[in-house]
Amino acid sequence: MARNKVQIQKGISLTEFLKQYGTEEQCFDALHRWRWPEGFRCPHCGHNQCCQLSYRKLQQCNRCHRQTSITAGTIFDSSKLPLTVWFQAIYLITQDKKGISSMNLARRLGISYNAAWRTKQKLMQVMVERDQQYKLSGFIELDDAYLGGERTGCKPGRGAESKTPFVAAVETTKEGQPTRIKLSVVQGFRNTEIAAWSKRYLSKGSIVISDGLACFNAVTEAGCDHDKIVCGGGRASVEEPEFYWVNTVLGNLKSALRSTYHAIRPKYAQRYLAEFQYRFNRRFDLCALIPRLVYVSLRTPPMPERLLKLSLDGN
């Protein structure tokens, strides 16, 4: 049986990681290289010449004389953590396919739980914002899913207060191999909600395959062709070959969440889905995950704790 080249990737070992990003100077140089790949550019006046202050890690523009930190205006802004700790957090979050909890992250990094929680939530927010700009195209398997278990005395099944509904979509090739996924929390499975989701995340002309849930007919409003397969619930729907990859992704997702996290609050659910989605969509090159995540973190606006604690819909 042929080996899966994606699954047996070496990734980047801890030894190799420490060789590249083991000191503050190495991390600073990496940030400088990725923030200004074509050379320094003053964020205030646009000038391309600066001097490095000897007593602080600041760049001073030669024209307007404004001083700029390498982390100013980025997701790292105002953080008191050393750059090495940030890089170690990125390494731990990206290299484990099941993720890492804030408690475990705190222990591994030697920082407080609150600091680890903020660090993880900020990095997951970067993943949310990065993948929002991409659309799925081609052949797409679509399904409804929920986070959270049933509670005693509460309504079971769809509409249960203890569950967070989300849409799971898998883009596949003509040969039936998965390429990218999209996991999105929704307010409910209604026509208006699915129509809005489809227009935002599906490319016109895509072929969407779903089960018999009526609201999925709304994908046609985004210019997609819809192939509906009514297969019933339970084991029959899981074994349907047309939904093999979306069911596989959902199984892996829920296994990862159950084994890593004690609980996920609904207001933060989209971030945890985005973390799994981000790693899955970039699984073909594990070594590139670290520079890619740092690169987009440098282009994500700051997010103070008061905003981190808001739900992603602003409430």
Automatic annotation (TrEMBL):
Domain ISXO2-like transposase: 135-281
Signal peptide: none
Pfam families: DDE_Tnp_IS1595, Zn_ribbon_IS1595
Highest taxon above the source species: Bacteria
Annotated InterPro entries: Tnp_ISXO2-like (IPR024445), Transposase_Zn_ribbon (IPR024442)
SMART domains per record: DDE_Tnp_IS1595 (SM01126)
Name of this protein: IS1595 family transposase
Organism: Microbulbifer spongiae
